[in-house]
Please model this.
Amino acid sequence: MPTRRLVLAATVVSLAAVAWADDDQDPRQSDDPTPQATTTARLEEVVVEARKPLSAASSEEVRARDYELRPHATTQEILNDLPGVIVAQHQGGGKATQYLVRGFDADHGTDFAVFVDDLPVNLPTHAHGQGYADLNFLIPETVDRLNLYKGPFFPQFGDFATAGALNLVTRDEFKEHFFRAEGGSFDTQRYAAGVSPHLGEGKTLLAAQAYYSNGPFDHPQHYNRYNAFGKYTLDLSPASTLSTSVGLYQGSWRGSGQIPLREVSAGRLDRFSAIDPTEGGRTDRENLNLRYTYRPSATEEWWFQLYASRYKLALFSDFTFYKDTGLRFLGHSAGSDQCPPDAPPDLCRGPTPSLHDIPGDGIEQNDQRYLYGARARYTRFWTLGAFPTESRLQVETRNDQIHVALYRQVERHRFFTVNRLAVDERSTSGFLEQQVFFTDWIRADVGLRGDVYFLHGFDDLPVQPFDPNFDPVRIRGRTTDGMVSPKANLILTPAANTDVFFNFGTGFHSNDARNALLARANPRAAGGLQSPLTRAIGYEIGSRTRQLDNRLDLAAALWWIDLDSELVFSGDVGTQETAAGGNFRPARASRRYGVDVESLFRVTRRLTADYDLSYADPRFRNGDAIPLAPTLLMNGGLTLDLGHGLSTALRLRFLDDRPAIEDRSLIARGYTLLDLIARWRWRNVEASLALLNLTDTDWREAQFADTSCVRREVVPGGFPPKGNPGRNGFRFPCVAQPGKQTDHPLEQAPDIHFTPGNPFGVRAGIAVFF
Model:
């Protein structure tokens, strides 16, 4: 790790703390007669690309009333209405979604930071994927607004905020108590209730939810989800507010996983069937969040946050089916006592089981952790010479105490431990931000953020028999890294209701601690010594205008993001994502550039039309495609208020085709979906009807390029020809099937593996308000 970079990051953190302690200017001596006016002009509230045109007030906010007439029975449906964002589920509904934004397939959150009431959702060094951000603990009715930020331009966000960040803000109270019941296709049922009882002088919110669905699959999902959430907000004095919230979540499900396209295309497997129907998992998360705001004067504010979470996940997956088990179970003919002289001894210990006994490549990823952290921020409005200025200083810390493991399993029964360790991951951060208003049409916002990370891994592998197929991965050690991230933004207002934005910023995402510790122990591996932190640099030029008495809202932004490395750790196999000849996939820098367009037109008092487009050209620096990176996303629709409590909306969502592998020889097919939603409220009763996937499109919700081997492709015995050694001297016994042939007839070519999206479905509901 470059010592200079660590020292710089530590210096920024220290400066933030020193500036905090040494702030000796009395803000009440400011010459600005109306300091409050600047509070509505913070950069993060007006950047072009983050604001949904139909949102009122600030540019990045999407308020609850804006998505009320869109599918929002689940958090996934809410997120799919954000401009330039599409999320996808690929195993039974219980996993975190995949986030597609600004040319990033951010997996489950590697390059997209997610918060709920400023509580971080992303989990570093996660069993399944770095930055795993599971929002299933959120009850949709509790969401008041969504603050969306794109690009690394905002100093308040650190880890994972390279493509962007999202903060979901919950309500302080319900305007009306309610009980809601919904149901429809695929045995889906949802029950939710919310009340706001009067408890003293504060605002109270209590909500609960139960959800069940089998999905459209041949093997029912049995997806159960239970949520509870409570929030209490109290004004301790005219100048101070305390907010406390508690959330509970538990889920369990079975998933049909990702199935190979070759089997579906040949008619051997139905698209809603499964090869391993025992996939799925169980998870729970509990959150505690305390926030305190103190305003000693009209020109300054203190803000403090303490949070803690307990999290568990046991995730059962099977990505390659029988590809990696043939060596052990088919090394020689059943009952044979002959074995090549260079074969591992355990391979020839006794007769080989029959084809029926092959266990397959199922894995269990296990994650148990406690995380806790604190933030403190000071904001002051003052004058710099003759210029109104807003200054913000913040320091924060976070600690994740993680127990993470990877097991091989058959029908959810473990039989081998690939890796198991405890990780202590700590970070300390701080930022300074200055926003200066030079005139009523020019303002600048500059910031400097520093982050320091401390990683310590403790190996906890058990004593177990040697296995010729599954090498245990021992991971231990410690390392430290830091990052300094400057931000600079200029905002011009050349005409009334028209703004032009120039943005620059650097950011980063952390790499899995196991990645950093493995690479540190083996710096000669492909890709070399890898830093725990990967830098991103972003640029943007954009404009927004509001015309025709604010009936027409238009925005456009050109952007550019460079990422130092696309190297990722794969929790699925116990080491870095593998390539032929080694355990490390070579690190390569990448570049993305594109354009975002947003529009909203209030055609009449009752009819509104909106449309969002996000185009990106994502590539590695050598010109190769970045697998599965999205190129074109679109959202749009028409909303009609028919009066007398009746309203309806037609919504469109589009994802274009995208390369699935670097050479573009495999394509992940895109889709276009239409939804029709109607609501009718009469007195204290509301009825709703949603027709989802109106055109019954045959679509793939999630897709991957992978090399797999199904049971019929397994060679029933015999060693590969001499001179073609593979791992441990042998190649896996899997016959090449349709697709590109490889160097040896026993090798399998990559294929698209996908999870099908839901066909046409109906959902109806009724809610009673009291």
Remarks:
- Helices lie at 3-21, 64-67, 75-79, 261-265, 326-329, 513-521.
